[in-house]
Amino acid sequence: MSNFTPLSSLIGGILIGLSASAMLLFDGKITGISGIVAGLLRPVRGETAWKTCFIVGLLTGGLLLRLFLPGAFAFGIVRPWPLLVLAGLLVGFGTRLGNGCTSGHGVCGVSRLSARSIVATATFVATGALTVFITNHLTKG
């Protein structure tokens, strides 16, 4: 495994956990990205400003990383664009079907010992592993 980065992974995981905990403790809100984006698509009075700021902050963080550490993006997309678009649509469908995404269920729900989130996260991981296996080994993708 040439890209094994335990320290960076640990620090990143701690930061994700701390930020999700801060959101829940200080604002009483779950940091589920699909729910936040869905809330912007169907606005509710009093909810739009913080959701917009949250998404802008995510995008700004990525842009700053690109600016100051461009090597972090030095990887190639090894799948055709139509397949990536289909994959994105399936992920969006899955998040609506599962009533949340890995950030909402996996980070926030599992840490609160939510049975529904534990099942959802196990389903996400199993489906992802199966998809990678099928794509890389059965279809020689």
Molecular structure report:
The protein is mainly α. The chain has a domain at 78-141. It contains six helices and no strands. It has helices at 6-27, 33-41, 48-68, 81-97, 102-111, 115-138. The mean pLDDT is 87.
* N-to-C order of helices and strands: HHHHHH
Oligomer: single chain
- Tally of contiguous helical segments: 6
Average pLDDT metric:
87
* Rg, alpha carbons: 17 Å
What structural class should be given to the helix and strand makeup? mainly alpha
Largest sheet: none
- Roughly how many Å apart are the termini? 20 Å
Number of strands: 0
The outline comes out as globular
Please state roughly what percent of the residues sit in beta strands, choosing from under 5%, 5-15%, 15-25%, 25-35%, 35-45% or over 45%.
under 5%
Task: Report the uncertain regions.
Answer: none
Helix % is over 70%
Outline the secondary-structure elements.
Blueprint: H1 6-27, H2 33-41, H3 48-68, H4 81-97, H5 102-111, H6 115-138
Helix pairs in contact: 2-3, 5-6
